[in-house]
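Homework-ish question, so no full write-ups if that breaks the rules, but can someone show me the predicted structure for this set?
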Amino acid sequence: MAYRWKNTLTAKDATPYSAFLNRRQLMAGLAAGGIAGSLPFGARAQEALEPNTWEEITTYCNYYEFGTGKEDPARYADALTIEPWTVRIDGLVDKPGDYSFSDIMSQMTIEERIYRFRCVEAWSMVIPWNGFELADLLNWVGVQSSAKYVAFETVLRPDEMPGVAYPVLDWPYVEGLRLDEAMHPLTIMATGLYGRDLPKQNGAPMRLVVPWKYGFKSIKSVVRITLTEDEPPASWNVANPREYGFYSNVNPEVDHPRWSQATERQIGSGLFAKRVPTLMFNGYDEVAGLYEGMDLRESF
Ligand SMILES: Nc1nc2c(c(=O)[nH]1)N[C@H]1C(S)=C(S)[C@@H](COP(=O)(O)O)O[C@H]1N2
Ligand SMILES: [Mo]
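A: Not a homework solution, just the prediction itself:
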């Protein structure tokens, strides 16, 4: 797999975790030296972000297939078999097929992306993902001109997933994006965390991350990606369309029917535990153009 010097200052040959720490020291040095203006794509925004700890990111999770408690995924997801792993890519693509996770990884360029992550429940974290741009995968399989949406599906393994015995959602968990959202350079498939393999509770081996949308759009443990002409179903939208829209862009001005979305609780301990204002598109203003002319109150 290749590494791209784009949104990361991680050295290719360094060990992942120490590389991450070195990168942070490097960033601090660059900022102190006043040359932050010349940093690559995304790096300026990243500079200000203090990531949550490995412990926080891997023990406070939502993955209802393993139970609805925040600590259930960390407790039960170990049972999930992720080798071998196959992703079916089908629908309106030139090269439909069953692709092994290692085939995909051999074609993709892995980078580090430190993203804000905002759950619809009004908590947030900062997460140092590793992954590749979804656009690269879609371009590799060839998107046909009639495709307008991308549908995603999570693996369904009742023997390994205690939570699916309960009809909380229609299993398997499914999600969808408009094609232009899926092709946006901020949209990634995450395959790692802090330079290590993605933990099972966070959606191993490969999960979607769309940082300007509420967390539930970022579907875990993906086994199918389908290019479609029509808007695909999305689990929370199907379960409760009044409370969860298809778009689900982070928007402090559009409240959830049962709580405010104006602020968020930053997950963390000590000095870092605080409530802060929520930002439009979770602070990722560069996606605003995708929604020009749309009423984001109506298309929430
Ligand atoms: N398959 C699946 N994907 C899922 C979920 C889930 O329950 N099942 N929960 C979503 C929600 S509500 C959130 S906030 C994020 C949480 O990701 P994290 O646990 O890695 O922080 O995953 C999303 N993806
Ligand atoms: Mo969420």
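Now go work out the reasoning yourself. Hint: The first strand starts at residue 2 and ends at 3.
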